[in-house]
Design brief:
This protein is 36% helix and 21% strand. It has 298 residues and is of the alpha/beta class. The longest helix has 25 residues. The two termini are 16 Å apart.
C-alpha cells in the first residue's frame, strides 16, 4: 500500500507551525504564523484550517494525505471536548470535530508531548529503543510514552502526564487543583516562582541558571533544588516504567547540567543501584512537535 503525504500542525502558545511531508518522510514545505489564541477559539480554528488548505494546495492532484494537529492539551475520548489546555480558549470546545467539519476529512489531534515523543522515536534520539519516555520541560512540564513505535494515549488520553503527579502535598498550588505537582518543581515557571517566593526578586530561568554557574548563592541554592527535584521525579518514574530510554525536550532540556549532575540525582532516587537508563538530549529541537503531528495524522 502506498504511503500518503502528511500534513502536521503544531499549535503553540506563540506560534502555529505547519509542515508537509512526502510519503518517504522528506520535508517538502513549512509555514509559521503567529498564534491566534489571543483572538479566541474561532480565530485558532480558522488559522488551522488556512494552514491545512495551503499545504494541501501543494500536493499533486488526487494525492492521498493525512492531517495531524498537536495541541497543548488533550481531546476527551468521551465528550470530544478539549481539556487541560494551556491555550485556555480551546478548553471545552470540540476542536477536532470543528476542524474535521471545515475540511471534510478526518484529522488526528494529540497532545503536543505525544507528538514530541513520536517524532523523537521515529527520527530522533529515541529511535531504536522499545519503551521510551519523552519529557517536555519548558514553561510547563509534560510527557509522552512510546511503546514499540506506538505512542500510548490511554483511555483518558493522559498517558505520560507526569507533570501533574503530586510529589509534595505541602508544595505550591498547581493550576490542575493539586499541590506540589512535578510541574511546579521543575518547569521554568515553577523554578522562577520558587526564586521569587524565597528572595522577592523576579528572575527568569535563564538568569537563575547563569547566576548558579557564576556562583551567586541564591541562584545556586534554587538551582540545586531544581536538580534534586528533577532527580527525584525522573528517578521515581524510571522505577515505575523501567524505560529503555528517556528523551528530554523543551527549553530546559538545553541545560547541560541535567545530563551530568541531574543524572546523578536520578541515579540516587531510582530503585536500582546501577542505573543504566540513557537520559538523552533530543535531536529534533523545535521541529519535533510539528513532525510528530504529521506522523499522528489521520
Amino acid at each position: 500500500m502506498n504511503e500518503p503525504f502528511r500534513i502536521g500542525i503544531d499549535l503553540g502558545g506563540t506560534k502555529i507551525e505547519s509542515v508537509l511531508l512526502a510519503p518517504d518522510g522528506a520535508e517538502l514545505s513549512r509555514r509559521r504564523v503567529p498564534s491566534a489564541a489571543g483572538e479566541g477559539y474561532g480565530a485558532v480554528v480558522s488559522a488551522l484550517h488556512t494552514l491545512v488548505i495551503a499545504a494541501a494546495a501543494e500536493l499533486p492532484a488526487g494525492a492521498a494525505y493525512t492531517v495531524g494537529v498537536g495541541i497543548p492539551g488533550s481531546v476527551d475520548a468521551v465528550t470530544g471536548l478539549v481539556r487541560n489546555a494551556n491555550s485556555t480558549c480551546l478548553i471545552g470546545n470540540p476542536l477536532q470535530h470543528d476542524l474535521e467539519t471545515l475540511l471534510g476529512r478526518p484529522v488526528g489531534v494529540r497532545n503536543d508531548a505525544d507528538c514530541f515523543t513520536m517524532a523523537e522515536c521515529r527520527m530522533g534520539a529515541g529511535r531504536g529503543y522499545g519503551l521510551v519516555f519523552g519529557v517536555i520541560m519548558g514553561t510547563g512540564c509534560g510527557g509522552g510514552l512510546c511503546i514499540d513505535g506506538t505512542v500510548r494515549e490511554g483511555p483518558h488520553r493522559i498517558a505520560g502526564e507526569w507533570g501533574h503527579l503530586s510529589v509534595d502535598p505541602a508544595g505550591a498550588p498547581c493550576y490542575c487543583g493539586n499541590r506540589g505537582c512535578v510541574e511546579t518543581k521543575i518547569s521554568g515557571s515553577g523554578v522562577e516562582r520558587a526564586f521569587r517566593e524565597a528572595y522577592g526578586d523576579p528572575l527568569a530561568m535563564a538568569e537563575i541558571v547563569a547566576g548558579a554557574r557564576s556562583g551567586e548563592p541564591r541562584c545556586a541554592a534554587v538551582f540545586e533544588r531544581f536538580l534534586d527535584d528533577f532527580g527525584r521525579a525522573l528517578g521515581g518514574l524510571i522505577s515505575i516504567l523501567d524505560p529503555d530510554a528517556v528523551v528530554l525536550g523543551g527549553g530546559l532540556s538545553n541545560i547541560d547540567e541535567l545530563y551530568a549532575r541531574g543524572v546523578e540525582r536520578v541515579r540516587h532516587h531510582a530503585f536500582h543501584d546501577d542505573l543504566r537508563t540513557p537520559i538523552l538530549r533530543n535531536l529534533l529541537g523545535d521541529s519535533a512537535g510539528v513532525l510528530g503531528a504529521a506522523w499522528i495524522g489521520r
